[in-house]
Design goal:
The complex is a heterodimer of chains A (210) and B (370). Chain A is an all-alpha fold and 210 residues long. Chain A contains 8 helices and no strands. Chain A has one domain: MetI-like fold (Orthogonal Bundle). Chain A is elongated, with a radius of gyration of 20 Å. Chain B has 370 residues and is of the alpha/beta class. Chain B is 36% helix and 24% strand. The two termini of chain B are 42 Å apart. Classes of the chains: A mainly alpha (210), B alpha/beta (370). At the A-B interface, helix 5 and helix 6 of A face helix 2 and helix 4 of B.
């Protein structure tokens, strides 16, 4: 059994590309919708349960349905992955913003901040640890969800896994599985580092300092 | 400076504020007090438009605040809350500069501003400016909370129970600091509290509210002297001046169980009674126990050998008062008469007791110190 390193590297790059692109789109959408939903509590009371039901639909089903409409092209995979990456970010943004203590909102209002200033100067910074927590979940999950890209023949590390499963070749499966696991681990660690940088010093727990 | 005209508000069927009318002058320290749910905090929050009245007008420096931009309005009104609410993601310096930044003060001025502000509360710039709120004690946090409210030099500052979450020592020193700052900077302060002691210490004028109405609005001294209602009196409680002496009578503090003797009694019996009770004077009564006068050991020694009973020796010079007489009048009479005691009589002229200077002193002490 010969290991084709350049093939693995190529697959890793495609996989990474899918992940980074989808997580970026999902993050922006998730934060934006999360903010929107906290501003429209009446609407979000109905929409959020619907979204969490959608979230439970297996990715493979969603990607299959999209395949029927969009055909076999990267957009199909990227759309599906972006939507799935969006869910944890949206949920955590919504929770994080709602959990900002009333005293800070009240103080911000009393100081004369308008809606936008309150959001940017107070609420988002205070919700940031929770939002980044959502980003971490989205990133790690998207690495594994991106495996399904191979299902419709669009490459990535899933290729090895599908081929290995169909040809009963364990070594081939591991060629996909091990890099995918490493990728998830590395990206997760990068998000943790990001977390340290975006969480204001005043919010960090004592143990995190220095 | 600040004027409420016919301000009303209700929530559902519940009336929160009922046709509120009042005026606070510039530089006054106005304290709103009352039972919880009386509308004091609602009133405060209407001033910076955190709450809108259903009807009526609020004027700040002659301008109807409903016609102003609410964000602009709030930037020119200081606001201090009980929970302090320093932004935990910002340093002390950044917190102080929040409002100046919103008002787009030139950035270069901010550092000097922070220095000046911290100096006012004796917190060295080098030590505190770059700390985060979580690194400060509660008292220090609220000092910064007050500085944040003062940073853009608003003429008026709203304080919603700012010290009630602090321990008594810290509260006391912050009260003094705030009162000092207010007088030094000539700020108008609208202060909400449920602590009457705090109100009496700080206020130029106390506004007592209940059920959305103003019950009494008066300077502390006037409120203490003339509480408008029983409820206000209850709130003032122990701070009231020694329960108005007007209510006290001679019966409240006279000494009872006084030794008396019948006027037809013999000299010897009298002397032995005086010796037995270790007194030099006895009160003399008739057979109906009515007061007749006093007899003293000195008179008995002088003329006791010529009389058999004490009748002829009885003197009526000791002043008498009635048990229902006003206590203060009794004291006055005792002091001015020069006698060592007064005799207190009941309606039927029987002896109720006596008032001595000692009983007077202990009665006064009891009402001064409880």
């Amino acid at each position: 059994m010969k290991i084709d390193l350049s093939a693995i590297l190529h697959a890793v790059l495609i996989h990474l590309g899918y992940t980074l692109f989808s997580v970026s789109i999902g993050f922006v959408l998730g934060v934006a919708l999360g903010i929107l939903f906290t501003r429209t509590p009446k609407l979000s009371k109905y929409i959020l349960p619907v979204l969490s039901v959608l979230n439970t639909i297996p990715g493979i089903v969603f990607i299959g349905v999209l395949f029927l409409y969009l055909g076999r092209q990267p957009a199909t995979v990227l759309t599906a992955l972006s939507v799935y990456a969006m869910f944890p970010v949206l949920k955590n943004t919504f929770t994080g913003l709602n959990e900002v203590d009333d005293q800070y909102k009240e103080a911000a209002r009393g100081c004369g901040m308008n809606h936008f200033q309150r959001l940017m100067l107070v609420e988002l910074p205070l919700a940031m640890p929770t939002i980044i927590g959502g980003l971490r979940i989205a990133t790690v999950y998207t690495v594994s969800w991106a495996v399904v890209a191979a299902m419709i023949g669009l490459g990535g590390l899933g290729d090895f896994i599908y081929k290995g499963v169909s040809s009963n070749n364990n070594a081939l499966i591991l060629q996909g599985a091990i890099p995918a696991a490493l990728l998830a681990f590395i990206l997760g660690t990068l998000v943790d580092i990001l977390q340290r940088h975006v969480v204001p010093r005043g919010l960090r727990k004592r143990g995190d300092e220095g | 400076m600040l004027r409420f005209e016919h301000v009303s508000m209700s929530y559902g069927s519940q009336t929160i504020l009922h046709d509120l009318n009042f005026e606070i002058d510039e530089g006054q320290f106005a304290v709103f007090i009352g039972p919880s749910g009386c509308g004091k905090t609602t009133t405060l929050k209407m001033i910076n438009r955190l709450i809108q009245p259903d009807s009526g007008h609020i004027y700040l420096n002659g301008q109807d605040i409903a016609a102003t931009d609410r964000y602009e309005l709030r930037r020119h009104i200081g606001y201090v809350i009980q929970q302090i609410g320093l932004f935990p993601n910002m340093t002390v310096a950044q917190n102080i500069c929040v409002v100046p930044k919103l008002l787009k003060y030139p950035k270069e001025k901010n550092e000097q501003l922070v220095r000046d502000m911290l100096a006012m509360v004796d917190m060295p710039y080098e030590k505190y400016a770059h700390k985060y709120p979580s690194e400060l004690s509660g008292g220090q946090q609220q000092r910064i909370g007050i500085l944040r409210a003062l940073a853009a030099s608003p003429p008026i500052v709203l304080m919603d129970e700012p010290f009630s979450a602090l321990d008594p020592m810290t509260r006391r020193s912050l009260q003094l600091e705030v009162k000092n700052l207010q007088q030094r900077l000539n700020k108008t302060i609208i202060f909400v509290t449920h602590d009457m002691e705090e109100a009496l210490d700080l206020a130029d004028v106390i506004v007592f509210m209940d059920k959305g109405r103003i019950v009494q609005m008066a300077p502390p001294e006037e409120m203490l002297e003339h509480p408008a209602t029983e409820q206000v009196r209850e709130f003032l409680g122990k701070h009231l001046p020694a329960s108005a002496p007007a209510d006290m009578t001679a019966a409240d503090f006279m000494r009872t169980g006084i030794i008396t003797v019948g006027q037809d009694r013999g000299i010897h019996e009298c002397v032995s009674r005086m010796q037995h009770h270790n007194v030099d004077t006895l009160l003399v009564v008739d057979d109906q126990k009515r007061y007749q006068g006093t007899v003293s050991i000195a008179d008995i020694r002088l003329t006791g050998h010529v009389v058999k009973t004490i009748g002829p020796l009885v003197r009526c010079t000791t002043p008498t008062v009635m048990a229902s007489d006003n206590a203060k009048d009794c004291f006055d009479q005792l002091v001015s008469s020069g006698f060592p005691y007064l005799v207190v009589l009941n309606e039927d002229q029987t002896v109720a007791g006596i008032i001595t200077k000692t009983s007077m002193a202990s009665a006064m002490a009891e009402h001064l110190w409880g």
